[in-house]
Design brief:
heterodimer; A: mainly alpha; 9 helices; about 75% helix; elongated; B: mainly alpha; flat
């Protein structure tokens, strides 16, 4: 009887955790999927959204008002269509930043383990220098030299992400190097390049890299938002969530909460989704036997 | 090893300067050596000048740059170090509650809350807090006179700084992880079996070392977040100076501010390393 009881309680606990995991995955899929759908709709103009049309009768109207599902901003522009269009500002530049970080990060991570001694030293010094600089300060420097362009900004975000990924990869390789399958493939005479790219990076680090990519996207969005506040993000009238929040906060102290709250919440939900993706992946890595 | 990097820092920063002298143009350099000037020449002349403490004159107001920057840096340091202290005051109880597992729901709730707050845009949170304090508590939290700042005017930027730079999230996560890890070690079990105090070992391995590491790593992030915070609260610090310099394209001021910033961060890493060696003499060989 008692045995049976414990069995039931354990099982219900397990199923609770299971359902939690399922809801997390569904949440991530829904949020990220809707971002992708919004992106495709707006870029290929499947449904016409007029993000520039001003409705002067409904300036700063709250959500669920007539004609505007999420209300309007300070010029009477529809927040919902601007929110959808705002995904354009992030998706391609964000993916660019992430791919730069991952490509060079894994390259440097491989080099720190397998490279020569001088290469290691150079990498160590350069990553140290990168980590000394606050990212926002570096971004301000770049903006001052060139111009406030989202692609330059994302380039810097990607480059500043390189050291963390390189560090992770090199640590992972350190663990993997003593495994017998690596020794076996060395004994087989596999070339070093194939060994690193196929056996280490692709078979054993791809999940880790996907997790890091999710975190990198989150960071890219957050960086663009804070640069928008300083006036160097995506420039109006092109909507991005950052400059939507920024223009909304100018009217926040007068009591018009919604026009900045809605994009801010959108940012939060999307970042949460990215974070959960990376969290689930890290959990999976911890659980895996190696 | 660290002093080695400290020396290396200035040429590293000024790799960017090669671009700058090329694109932004540093008038003094060009006027000094009239005629064609190559990048390397300009770069090295700039390097030697800055090494001897001559960062030039600001483009916008004509004052020497270094004095300005140092004055503003002091203001920022005041802000950042109080932010570090406050974040410790906030996070340590949270970590203790989480580790001791007395109120599991409460600790989970605070963890989720801190995590969610870190996802929101920092300036939006700041504006909401100002709005709440003015409309609900009928109190205006922004300082009007920076000679005398009351505690209540000081607390809001400091807390936001902790939040925005990810200090809170990082400390809570890493510290709970480290403490749990140390508590599972065998020597803790041994100490428990002997009846000795666990706290001494726990403090050194589980709290002091990770905290030092975390705090010194996070100072760079703090400096990044101060740019926004100082902008919101009108704090006369280095972040505001940087923003101003970027707006005006005041290249000498910008360069000097960036380098001083990097030096401060390096110095804090160095100090953290010294403290680490003091606590743990075994590490002095590294």
């Amino acid at each position: 009887m008692r045995k049976n009881n414990t069995y039931v309680s354990e099982r219900s606990k397990l199923s609770l955790k299971y359902w939690f995991d399922i809801t997390v995955i569904i949440y991530c899929l829904v949020v990220l999927g809707s971002v992708v759908i919004a992106y495709t709709i707006t870029t290929f103009e499947l449904v016409a959204f007029d993000y520039d049309e001003m409705d002067f009768d409904a300036i700063l109207s709250p959500p669920l008002s007539a004609g505007h599902i999420l209300g309007t901003d300070y010029l009477g522009r529809d927040l919902f269509s601007r929110l959808l269009l705002g995904t354009q500002a992030y998706l391609v530049p964000g993916i660019m930043a992430v791919s730069i970080a991952i490509f060079f990060g894994s390259l440097l991570g491989g080099l720190t383990v397998f490279g020569s001694k001088s290469a290691k030293k150079v990498i160590k010094i350069s990553t140290d220098l990168l980590q000394t600089m606050p990212r926002l300060v570096l971004l301000l420097l770049v903006v001052a030299i060139f111009e406030a362009n989202i692609y330059y900004i994302m380039l810097v975000v990607g480059i500043t992400n390189i050291p963390t990924i390189a560090d992770l990869i090199s640590r992972r390789i350190d663990i993997l190097r003593d495994k017998s399958f690596i020794e076996a493939s060395i004994a087989n005479g596999t070339p070093k390049y194939t060994l690193i790219v196929k056996h280490i990076l692709w078979y054993n680090c791809r999940i880790l890299l996907i997790g890091q990519a999710a975190l990198g996207m989150a960071e890219a969005i957050l960086m663009e938002t804070s640069l928008s506040y300083l006036g160097f993000g995506v420039q109006e009238p092109t909507p991005s969530w950052g400059n939507m929040v920024q223009s909304g906060t100018n009217y926040l102290l007068q009591g018009n909460l919604w026009s900045s709250t809605i994009p801010a919440l959108a940012i939060m939900f999307v970042l949460l989704a990215f974070y959960l993706v990376s969290e689930v992946i890290i959990k999976r890595i911890d659980r895996s036997p190696d | 090893m660290i002093i080695f990097f400290l020396v290396y820092i200035s040429p590293g920063e000024s790799l960017l300067q090669e671009y700058l002298l090329n694109l932004g143009g540093n008038e003094e350099e060009f006027s000094e050596n009239s005629g064609p000037i190559n990048i390397h020449q300009a770069y090295f002349s700039w390097l030697f000048a800055s090494m001897s403490g001559n960062f030039g004159v600001s483009n916008s107001n004509g004052l020497p740059v270094l004095g300005q920057v140092l004055e503003f840096t002091a203001n920022t340091l005041y802000l950042t170090f109080s932010a570090l202290l406050i974040s410790l005051c906030i996070t340590l109880p949270v970590v203790m509650i989480t580790v001791s597992n007395t109120f599991p729901t409460l600790s989970r709730f605070t963890n989720i809350l801190i995590r969610l707050l870190s996802f929101l845009p920092l300036f939006w949170v700041a504006y909401i807090l100002i709005y709440i304090s003015t409309s609900v508590f009928d109190y205006y939290p922004l300082a009007t006179d920076y000679e005398e700042i009351t505690a209540s005017q000081f607390i809001l930027p400091v807390i936001l700084l902790c939040l925005g730079s990810g200090v809170l999230v990082e400390i809570v996560q890493q510290l709970t992880y480290e403490i749990k890890r140390v508590l599972n070690e065998e020597y803790i079990l041994c100490a428990r079996a002997k009846g000795a105090s666990v706290f001494k070992h726990l403090f050194k391995e589980g709290i002091a070392f990770p905290l030092l590491n975390l705090l010194s790593n996070r100072i760079a992030y703090l400096f990044g977040a101060t740019i926004i915070i100082e902008q919101i609260f009108g704090w006369p610090g280095i972040g505001r100076l940087l923003w101003q310099a970027t707006q005006d394209r005041d290249i000498p001021l910008l360069l000097c501010a960036v380098i001083i910033c990097a030096c401060v961060i390096r110095l804090s890493h160095f100090i953290a390393r010294l403290i680490y060696v003091l606590i743990n003499p075994r590490a002095s060989h590294e």
